[in-house]
Design a protein that fits this description.
This protein is α+β, with helices and mostly antiparallel strands. Helices cover 55% and strands 16% of the residues. Helix 7 runs antiparallel to helix 8 and helix 9 packs across helix 10. The radius of gyration is 57 Å and the shape is rod-shaped. 16% of the residues are buried.
Length: 483
């Protein structure tokens, strides 16, 4: 139970999942945006470096060609001002070395070159000159910061290599970083607002999604076998929720049906137990009472014929009442202990004809789909069923009405239907639900056990009995037996 209490609710799970989904999406977008910005920035600086380097080479080649300096290193000193002018015009720093790595002009040099007497490493210079591409790019780290630099071989118009150019490219990192921070700060604000909106939406969406489930949970918690259960009706429910609601409503119908059958079974069992007790308690004293009355009637000392006649009438009345009580006890006993059904293949048409012939004078007709219809049947109990139904039909017809009772037997592929209809007074709406209850009767001299016994016998034959009635017009009983 403790484990169940600690379980996370579906509503909270949906809420957290939506927040995590939005938060993860925001992080991914921020990460991809930062990466994209960095990539574009690197591509831009790389393009800018190549463009400045290309412009610088054109200017240097122009001066070298103008003053024919490609094969005369001694004259370079005379034109330092021209090379310094390039740094001012293009706002760049650079240095030029001979093919052997000796300095010709420099405005900026890395520490490793300065420490090497302002000259390039000989092996590095040879490697660069011998390289087909004739260019080497590196990343330098100094006290000032990081910067990209390139070493490239300069060639004259004839394609002859005459010098090595060192070009450091200093990008405006502070501006780039500032621009990036402003951009990310704006994104943070936007995504923070989106996250807040997502939290609010997740709260209402999770509440909306789980509202139907919560309604179902409350209804299931209130469901009980011995009380009136309410069905669930939801508007705009999803397909899954609607299917769940339909299953619950079907369960309520089945539960109500089971409760009714259980209550009915309990009532029948209670009546059977009471019937046993009543039959036992009534029958025990009746026989000695009858014998006593008969003995008194026979052995009286009266001499007058008139007095004997009065005594005989009195004793006969007592005996008749005792017999009536005995019949009541027998009826209760029969209801409480119906004999076990003995099913055997019998002709239901023949058995029904015998009953109809008993009541021949009451305008009863019999119609059958076949002359002989065989079915597994307890013939004695079936005669009792038909006797009860026809007798009830006769008693339901008022004396001022021409009786018309019809019995029909119809055979189909799987069932046999027996229909008993009359033109009597019918069953009132108030009495229709309790017509098969043992205690129910509308007759002054009946005990209300007949239709209860009929239903019990039909059930023992695995059949069903139902009826339709119109007030003042008649009743139709329909029995369905499996073949």
């Amino acid at each position: 139970m403790k484990f169940l209490k600690n379980k996370m609710s579906l509503r909270l799970r949906i809420f957290i999942s939506m927040i995590l989904l939005v938060f993860t999406a925001i992080l991914l977008v921020l990460g991809s945006t930062y990466y994209q910005y960095r990539t574009e920035s690197d591509q831009y600086n790389s393009y800018r470096q190549e463009r400045k380097e290309s412009q610088l080479k054109r200017q240097i080649n122009y001066i070298v060609k103008k003053y024919d300096l490609s094969n005369n290193y001694d004259k370079w000193v005379d034109y330092n001002n021209d090379f310094e002018e390039i740094t001012k015009i293009h706002s760049v720093e650079y240095s030029i070395f001979t093919i052997e790595g000796l300095p010709l002009f420099y405005s900026y040099l890395p520490l490793d070159v300065i420490s090497n007497n302002y000259s390039l490493d000989v092996d590095f210079a040879e490697m660069l000159v011998s390289n087909e591409e004739g260019k080497f790019t590196s990343e330098n780290i100094t006290d000032v910061g990081k910067f990209q630099s390139s070493y490239s071989v300069l060639k004259n118009d004839a394609g002859e290599k005459y010098a090595i150019l060192f070009f450091p490219y200093f990008q405006d990192v502070s501006f780039a970083e500032s621009e990036l921070n402003v951009f990310l700060s704006t994104l943070y604000q936007i995504y923070f607002i989106m996250l807040v909106v997502a939290i609010v939406l997740a709260y209402f969406i999770s509440r909306f999604v789980t509202r139907s489930i919560e309604t179902i949970r409350l209804k299931i918690g209130q469901t009980g076998l011995l009380k009136k259960n309410e069905k669930i009706y939801l508007n705009n429910a999803t397909k899954e929720i609607d299917s769940l609601v339909n299953s619950y409503n079907k369960m309520i119908d089945d539960l109500e049906d089971s409760a009714q059958r259980l209550a009915k079974t309990e009532r029948e069992q209670a009546w059977q137990e009471m019937a046993k007790q009543v039959a036992h308690e009534i029958k025990n004293p009746l026989t000695p009472m009858r014998l006593t009355v008969q003995s008194f009637q026979k052995n009286n000392d009266l001499s007058s014929d008139e007095e004997k006649l009065k005594l005989n009438d009195f004793c006969q009345t007592l005996i008749e009442q005792i017999d009536t009580m005995s019949n009541v006890a027998t009826a209760f006993s029969d209801f409480a202990t119906l004999p076990k059904t003995q099913l055997e293949k019998s002709d239901i048409v023949e058995a029904t004809k015998k009953v109809v012939e008993i009541f021949e004078q009451n305008n009863i007709t019999l119609e059958t789909s076949n002359d002989n219809i065989f079915v597994k049947l307890d013939k004695a109990q079936w005669i009792r069923v038909m006797t009860n139904l026809i007798k009830n039909s006769i008693q339901a017809i008022p004396h001022d009405r021409e009786p018309r009772i019809e019995v029909a037997i119809k055979e189909s592929s799987k069932t046999i239907k027996i229909v008993v209809s009359d033109n009597g007074l019918g069953v009132s709406k108030n009495n229709r639900e309790k017509i098969f209850e043992p205690k129910f009767t509308t007759k002054s001299d009946g005990m209300g056990l007949g239709l209860g016994i009929v239903k019990s016998i039909i059930s023992s034959h695995r059949g069903k009995i139902s009826f339709k009635s119109k007030n003042k017009k008649g009743t139709v009983f329909t029995i369905s037996l499996p073949k």
